């Protein structure tokens, strides 16, 4: 996705606190932007599962409950998504 597409998509996610936080950071701070990469849904979901497991098992003291809850929700949303490929940026 291009930068403007990312902004527009984040603006549409009014109920998603994480998306709104990202939008706020992008609009109010200096950010580096990369157009992202496309990956199979199964592989991307596996990456998020590994990230969550690492956070919970090895770095539990570094993460607040709401961050871990957001990652769990993201994994659930990825698993229920009908797309075969997803783009991460």
Outline the structure in words.
The protein has about 90 residues and is mostly helical. The longest helix has 17 residues. A two-stranded antiparallel ribbon has the order 1-2. The mean pLDDT is about 85. The protein has four helices and two strands, in the order ααβααβ. Helices cover about 60% and strands about 10% of the residues.
List keywords for this structure.
89 residues, single chain
Secondary structure elements and their pairing?
Elements: H1 3-12, H2 17-28, E1 37-40, H3 41-57, H4 65-80, E2 85-88
Antiparallel strand pairs: 1-2
Quick structural overview:
This protein is mainly α and 89 residues long. The chain has helices at residues 3-12, 17-28, 41-57, 65-80, and strands at 37-40, 85-88.
């Amino acid at each position: 996705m291009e930068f403007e597409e990312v902004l527009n998509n984040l603006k549409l996610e009014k109920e998603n606190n994480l998306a709104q936080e990202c939008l706020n950071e992008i609009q109010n701070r200096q950010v580096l932007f990369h157009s992202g990469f496309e990956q199979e849904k199964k592989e991307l979901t596996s990456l998020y599962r590994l990230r969550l497991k690492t956070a919970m098992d090895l770095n539990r003291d570094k993460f607040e409950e709401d961050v871990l809850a957001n990652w769990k929700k993201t994994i659930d949303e990825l698993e229920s998504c009908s797309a075969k490929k997803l783009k991460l940026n």
